[in-house]
Amino acid sequence: MATLLIFSPQTSPRLRYTLEEIFRYRLAIDFRHTTDPSSYLEWTGPKITYSPQPPGDGGIWIPAVPFLFESGANASLPTVIRNGDLPALFPVFEASGSGWSFDLFAMVFFMLSRYEEYLISERDEHGRFPSSSSMAGREGFLETPLVDLWLNRFAEKLQHAYPAIKPASPPFYFLPSFDIDQFQAYKYKPLWKQIGAGIRDLISGRFPSFFRRIAVISGMEKDPFDTVPDILRMHSETGVKPLFFFLLGEPGPHDVNHSYRHPMLRAGIRQLANGYPVGIHPSYRSADRLTLVKEEKERLEGICGHQIRKSRQHFLRLRLPESFRALLEADLAEDYSMGYADAIGFRAGTSVPFRWYDLAGENATGLLVVPFQVMDITLKKYMGLSPEEAKKRMLDLVNVVRRTGGTFCCIWHNSSFDEKGDWRGWTAVYRALLKDIQNPFLL
To answer: Measured in whole angstroms, how far is the alpha carbon of residue 108 from the centre of its chain?
Structure first.
């Protein structure tokens, strides 16, 4: 395969990261980067110029704005334009003749680095960056994988110009993941909690909940959250192993899990960890007390008996750069929190996993960020969709990822398969997803 030479008048950590993400990890193209004009002019193979000015001797020209050569999060947000049927960022109107009316590399970095989240101060009640504050949310392209679509088009242009270059295409991959906040709703909890919860049910007039609690505790009825065996059976026909995240923080207002010391919880985790990938679900309070991430991860390792490398923030309480730095400090290698609680879509403009760039430190890290596109609670609670409406919106996103290539990752909870409570009808939504995934040609 031919080697691609990329020239820029200067370099920077941002540019090196962006080139690596695009050409090495995404397109799998052998490339070299140079700041030497003579090397570029003498190169007889495929080549690209990334600069404000067009190249002096052929090659593809990607017009550059200063963004990738700056440092820190202190610039204003980029302008959004329409380029054909797609939005684009960082317009370069004077770049006629290049074939590009915007800085493609700057746009990729802006989206992957989550640059805007360092600039915009709005946060929701849980301290999270809301989708409505994002550029994608405001401009209406949150459900469009902007990075993936533009890089696919770039790969086509590159191969057309240089047939010896054979860019890779991201394969479609399905990654089901489950947050186990509570293994059981009623069982295995201290008596004083059961009595208190029962009294609250009666005072609030939640009589069905009260009688169901009694039925479960007495052994007359299955616990509504005891659905992990059902989840495993549903996936057994797909050949896909779901990924499970466990909440092991000290119980609190937002961390309503069983104690990590409870034999039932420990036995359940060990059983799943023997056959399925598992990760830590850092507690709600760990977003404020970052040292808890490592502590809770080590608890899970002690239960499983092997190293844990995967993580997803409880309540998706992701704060940059602090949350990701805490994961690295805890020797975690993969995060699965890159998405919104209040909306479905592509928070970073992509469904393809990417390395985290620490914008505050201006350096690429080894932490792999695995974006997700949809969560059960988002569909039901935040968007207020019916099961039928949710099914359609979710399958539409599956087809978007199937067409562009990438990983369709969803978040579900074991508690969402309770067909006698608030989640009646939602098991069918998830089954529809599994059925769709098994038909790779359904578009």
So the answer is: 16
